């Protein structure tokens, strides 16, 4: 007879099966291949990781950005750059995120994801329409910063949570990683309107607490024929003034003073407006609405521009009064920006006022708008006035990209912030993302040239999405709150040792043609209207993203693997039992008796029966008794561990 397994052997088999099931469960619940860990670092470790990453990004930007012109430099744009305002090219993937407000509203109940490309970064630049080409300065930035992609990828892989990495530049361009499409026609702001110079992360990086007074020459003079657009100096000055309102930051102060030939000028506001922080729409400064409206209402001076000159002294004296009235005058940088047609009354009163400007630690920026008044004599006078205060004079000859035309002001702001001793990297308060992906907090570092340390290049930044760091959010916020920080201080020594400079590098370094501008940005590979079905593309086509699918495949593979494991366990049991079981005992003729009803062969048929049994097994007939017993053992229920055997 076949020997049965002992209780210990059965328990051993059961343990083997349980272990196999545990392994199967672990496989089924493991994260998808190549994914980042679900659990992030502790808050202080994550804070250190992000700050180290943004500093590395700023260092790389300073390294790859050229500081001198090279006549032998090859064509800068070897590859085109992905346009954030167009559908993604290449092989985009769907990154799983904790929450995506737009997609969660569009596809209720679906997993949160966002379509991105990890093959390259994307770029946005301000323009009037999606087909408008980047200007010369923007094209140069687009081409020169393609080398950041490798650094972007390296830093992104270090982060256990989804985050955006990007750099912004004085010409308004922003290169970001991972690349994604943002042509949402329903967004509060359009993709083509994105201008990094108006965003809180950019301005927080380059600006120490600032008090700015803008002087607008209200004497209306036609623009010089060299302008491609028609217009007058007053209209253009008002355009520049309103553009500057978009570049202020939290706790800055700002005011506007029109001036003409009259001896007394009056500010549009009795006291400078204190800028607040709008966390739901940080680009919208409601407190500046009245000031913006008053700028539009500035009327041309009634005096005859042919007979009189503008009285700059009156405007500067009004600005000095505004600075003195400010409660925090000694803690802020003080700057005056003048927009004029170029014809300024230069007398002794003006010289005395300029000396007072300098002794009050006020920096003077004079931007003359090229017109019929822009004679060589007038331009020389303006340059002399600026030099007297260690300021700067620049002639404006274009209406395109106005903030870039006055970049010397922003470069000076960044330099003063760098020298002030303010802690870096700098963290903004939490605010709503431009493209409505939720509340973010941004860490920023300004980048300066490695060969010309005073030359401001741009701002490196990383967004931390609070909803992506849920398990360490409180710990992270505590670490950020306890982080040592120091506000910058501008004293006389720093003020006297610095002055603005006219950065002509962006205009003269590379002679880029219109063809280069047209080739800088990639065209859409497929003929797709960027504004059609945008959310379907962004949200991974009904939540079936290419990175979400592998998770389903893992479950399928896990189930199949489990079945195979159980099959192997079953086979192992059978083999184990077979090897442990002795051969069946063949009874002799003397032990046989007539018991056919019980399956026992009669004595007289024993020889024939034995022979028939062997033949049947060899020819595929009735199985041998050991095979029958083994089959029953493999399919019948195993006895309970405590059952009596």
From TrEMBL:
Signal peptide boundaries: 1-28
Region (Disordered): 585-624
One Gene Ontology term of the molecular function aspect: voltage-gated calcium channel activity
Keyword Signal: yes
Residue ranges of the TM segments: 552-577
Domain VWFA, residue spans: 211-419
GO CC, one annotated term: voltage-gated calcium channel complex
Family annotation (InterPro entries): Ca_channel_alpha-2/delta (IPR051173), VWF_A (IPR002035), vWFA_dom_sf (IPR036465)
SMART domains, A to Z: VWA
Coiled-coil parts of chain: none
Keyword vocabulary terms for this entry: Membrane, Signal, Transmembrane, Transmembrane helix
PANTHER family: STOLID, ISOFORM H (PTHR10166:SF37), VOLTAGE-DEPENDENT CALCIUM CHANNEL SUBUNIT ALPHA-2/DELTA-RELATED (PTHR10166)
UniProt protein name: VWFA domain-containing protein
């Amino acid at each position: 007879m076949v020997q049965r397994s002992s209780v210990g052997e059965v328990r051993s088999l059961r343990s083997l099966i349980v272990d196999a099931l545990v392994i199967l469960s672990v496989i089924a619940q493991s994260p998808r291949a190549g994914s980042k860990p679900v659990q992030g670092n502790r808050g202080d470790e994550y804070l250190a990781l992000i700050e180290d990453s943004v500093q590395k990004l700023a260092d790389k930007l300073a390294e790859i950005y050229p500081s001198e012109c090279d006549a032998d430099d090859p064509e800068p744009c070897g590859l085109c750059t992905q346009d954030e305002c167009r559908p993604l090219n290449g092989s985009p993937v769907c990154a799983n995120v904790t929450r995506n407000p737009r997609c969660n509203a569009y596809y209720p109940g679906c997993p949160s994801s966002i379509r991105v490309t990890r093959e390259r970064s994307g770029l946005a630049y301000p323009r009037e329409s999606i087909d408008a080409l980047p200007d010369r300065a923007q094209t140069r930035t687009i081409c020169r910063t393609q080398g950041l992609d490798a650094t972007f990828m390296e830093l992104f892989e270090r982060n256990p949570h989804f985050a955006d990495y990007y750099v912004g530049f004085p010409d308004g361009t922003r290169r970001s990683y991972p690349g994604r499409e943002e042509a949402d026609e329903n967004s509060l702001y359009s993709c083509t309107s994105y201008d990094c110079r108006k965003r809180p992360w950019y301005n927080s990086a380059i600006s120490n607490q600032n008090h700015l007074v803008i002087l607008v020459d209200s004497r209306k003079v036609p623009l010089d024929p060299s302008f491609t657009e028609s217009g007058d100096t007053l209209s253009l000055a008002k355009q520049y003034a309103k553009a500057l309102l978009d570049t202020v930051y939290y706790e800055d102060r700002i005011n506007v003073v029109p001036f003409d030939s009259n001896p007394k000028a009056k500010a549009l506001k009795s006291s400078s407006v204190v800028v607040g922080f709008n966390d739901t729409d940080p680009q919208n400064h409601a407190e500046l609405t009245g000031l913006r409206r008053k700028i539009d209402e500035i009327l041309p001076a009634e005096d005859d521009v042919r007979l009189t000159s503008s009285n700059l002294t009156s405007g500067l004296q009004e600005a000095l009064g505004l600075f003195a009235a400010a409660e925090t005058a000694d803690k802020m940088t003080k700057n005056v920006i003048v927009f004029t047609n170029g014809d300024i009354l230069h007398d002794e009163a003006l010289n005395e006022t300029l000396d007072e400007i300098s002794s009050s630690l006020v920096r003077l920026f004079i931007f003359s708008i090229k017109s019929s008044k822009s004679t060589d004599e007038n331009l020389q006078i303006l340059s002399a006035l600026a030099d007297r205060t260690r300021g700067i004079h620049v002639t404006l000859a274009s209406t395109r990209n106005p903030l870039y035309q006055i970049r010397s002001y922003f470069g000076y702001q960044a330099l003063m912030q760098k020298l002030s001793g303010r802690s870096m990297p700098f963290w903004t308060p939490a605010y709503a993302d431009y493209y409505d992906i939720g509340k973010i907090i941004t860490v920023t570092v300004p980048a300066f040239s490695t060969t010309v340390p005073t030359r401001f290049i741009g701002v490196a930044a990383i967004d931390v999405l609070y909803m992506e760091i849920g398990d360490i959010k409180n710990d992270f916020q505590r670490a950020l709150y306890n982080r040592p920080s120091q506000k910058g201080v501008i004293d006389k020594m720093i003020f006297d040792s610095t002055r603005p400079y006219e950065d002509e590098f962006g205009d003269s370094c590379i002679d880029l043609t219109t063809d280069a501008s047209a080739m800088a940005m990639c065209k859409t590979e497929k003929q797709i209207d960027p504004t059609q079905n945008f959310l379907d593309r962004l949200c991974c086509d009904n939540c079936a993203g290419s990175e979400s699918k592998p998770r389903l495949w893992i479950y399928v593979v896990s189930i199949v693997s489990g079945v195979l494991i159980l099959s192997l366990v079953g086979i192992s049991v059978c083999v184990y039992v077979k090897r442990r079981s002795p051969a069946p005992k063949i009874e002799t003729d003397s032990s046989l008796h007539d018991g056919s009803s019980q399956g026992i062969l009669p004595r007289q048929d024993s020889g024939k029966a034995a022979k028939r049994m062997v033949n049947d097994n060899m020819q595929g007939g009735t199985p041998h008794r050991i095979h029958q017993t083994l089959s029953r053992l493999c399919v019948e229920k195993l006895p309970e561990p405590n059952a009596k055997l």
